[in-house]
Design goal:
188 residues; mainly beta; Porin; 14% helix
Length: 188
């Protein structure tokens, strides 16, 4: 299956689930927020997240990211990170939280003469703190870790591949996930 089709078929159910959970909750408690991770921006990976409060102590979000280059090197990646957060302060988007998240991503990365072309998915846990800066603004510091399954083809400059769609390496790696300093704009 083509990676783009796989990612699109995976995103649709996630977005539908997020919408259903949003409409199933009490409308009075809802808050919407847009979040941008400045650390990913510094790494030349544009990103944006939509956060929806489900109740007084819970929220869900879906973050999308993509990159075409990394400081002049071949580095193409795109993916989504859905996340469920539990807020300890008694209201969403305030103080300490713990999150359970997933990652679904595709990548094509070249380091020196080695090219990695594949996809990864996994899930993990995130911890963080949200500083309220005003009525509509906050600063979100968070970090997490996740076991991630990867499936990719490794090739070297000058190689002739017999079957370019064949994946030659796969495995599980423990990776940092959702590390960031995010600026949050609370819409309502």
């Amino acid at each position: 299956m083509n990676m783009m089709n796989w990612l699109q078929n995976t995103i649709k159910p996630l977005v539908l689930t997020c919408c259903l959970l949003t409409f199933a909750c009490n409308a009075d408690a809802q808050k919407l927020a847009l979040r941008n991770n400045a650390l990913l921006d510094i790494a030349c990976v544009p990103n944006l997240s939509l956060d929806v409060a489900l109740g007084r102590k819970t929220s869900i979000s879906i973050e999308g990211f993509a990159s075409w280059t990394l400081y002049g090197h071949k580095f193409k990646t795109y993916g989504v990170i859905p996340e469920f957060r539990y807020w300890f302060a008694g209201r969403t988007f305030t103080r300490w939280f713990v999150g359970v998240d997933m990652i679904l991503a595709a990548y094509k990365v070249q380091f020196r003469s080695t090219l990695y072309d594949g996809e990864c998915y996994g899930g993990g846990i995130t911890f963080g703190y949200d500083f309220n800066l005003g009525r509509h603004w906050s600063l979100d510091l968070h970090a997490g870790v996740a076991p991630v399954y990867y499936n990719h083809r490794r090739s070297y400059q000058g190689d002739v591949l017999d079957n370019p769609t064949e994946y030659k390496e796969h495995g599980i790696a423990i990776l940092p996930l959702q590390i960031g300093v995010s600026f949050v704009y609370i819409i309502k």
